[in-house]
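FIELD: query
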Amino acid sequence: MKTEEIRDLMRFLKRYYSDEHPALDLLNLHNDRSNYGEFFRNLVSTPSKKDEEIAKKIYKDTYPKTSYKKLKSTFSSRALNTITFLDIESSKLSGLMKAIYRSYKNLFFISTLLRLGSRGAAISLARKTLVLSERYELHHVSVELLEQLRTHAMLNGQKTDFKKYAKGLEYAMGALESESKVRTLVQEMEIHSAKSTYIDEKLATKAYAVLEIIKAELNKHDTYLNRLSLFRLQNMYSQYAGSPSESIKACNAALAYLLIKPHMTPDSRTGEFLLYKLENYMLLQDDDHATEQILECAAYISEGTNLWFNFREFHFLLLMHTENFQDADRIYFQVTNHDRFAAQSDHIRERWDISKLYLDYFRSSEKRMAAIGALKRSYLLRQSRYAERVKIFPTYTKDKRGMNVAMLMLNILLLLESNKNDLVLAQAEALKTYRFTHLKPTNSHQSAILFRLVKLMVKYEFQYDIIIKKAKSLEEQLRNTKPSIGELKEAVLIMP
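FIELD: result
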């Protein structure tokens, strides 16, 4: 196990630790003078420490690889053994999470007891656990339990029980297979945004086809997971098809469904669909409803989760669009200084880097306007951090499509302020290439108009009075045109 993985395990154990049967005594490890204590303190004190650094702290200036590897392996094993004794029941986790923990822990106990010859105890525990797994639709657990209970009925000649468990097993296997099929289809859609910001307009056609398959599966197995998959795909399809209002209806239907399944619904699931609503209100440029949605999302989405990072990204964009730069700066600091920020995907961290550049630009503009009443050149163009970022753009790959547009537009703004018109021409040419290569008007509504404004500026050789007159109709179009889902999710629309 890697050091960072052990460190993440420690964060988890500290949250749900129980001192009743500790395989690893976390309470006393801080003061333990043994090598285990030293390893633990170095592990949690500085997240950036690597194996060699930790080993030298423990074994002084030497690095005995065999001894350190054994210490690390033993520590990891003890930490994993502690999972069986987590204090889940007194935690604030949802009923579903508690049921999952109990069911899988019991399933391990049952399998162990059966294989070691304690069939009576195993079957008794299996019957109790089956009630739990069926209530919470944990079909994988139910399949394992029903197989053992059916076998036990066969061994004891219990024909009625055998038929009951065989029928239950057939249903559980069918539901499990259906959920697996639906989950695969949904993930085939979601995988497009896992490590990329690229949103392909062709996804609308595919989303519609997947939606029809899920509806057919629901007719056979109307399970909780299949029903949620339907709502997700309805939201996704309507977004891709350019109908955020229909997406909001799908989200409201999902939230209503979750209300009638309270025992199955953790806060994070409610938070997921509230976040989808936030996205859609932002697509509609309905800032008032989007702001209301921020408060609802914050009530259901736990800090530090992947959903929380996604939520804060949209929160940041809304604050930028409403010119609330001070709060946007606060959100940026909160996110980028979180101990789980480093674990986010590269493209997500890169989007935050670019967003920070925009934030610096607008905040510096505010200060300069307030101080002298007129906009002067930005210092950002002279920053080495910005210069390094500009060097790698434009990157002509689809997965960085939105980031390219954001960087090119910011660079044009800064170059115009600095009267570097020759360099503006080069950036405008890059935008032209992007327009015809990666950005189609059907999927880049506002970007297409923005590019036309830049083209107009170049055409009339930066003559301000002429450009102002010629640009009026395009500016009106830009104000009245709603963004596409790609423009919102690809970080094109950072500017207010």
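FIELD: remark
The mean pLDDT is 80.
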